[in-house]
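Can anyone check this?
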Amino acid sequence: MVIDFTPKGVCSRQMVIEVEDGIVKSLQVTGGCHGNLQGISKLVEGMKVEEVIARLDGIRCGGKATSCPDQLAQALKQSI
């Protein structure tokens, strides 16, 4: 399954997540803090979707109500 997600309230503009058998296979993010999002992408590859959601859901960025990691969790909720 490929999730094409448009984040809301953050700097990133698009997330394309490949999920297979409940495992994140790849994450590509357009926009946002490039280095940080590359790091997050590498960290979540191979992780169970539920684990990624548990770790990233609710993380905030500065004064914002959300963050790129939180938006990733929101996108992954679509796959479960």
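Reply from J.R.: I decoded it. The longest helix spans residues 34-44.
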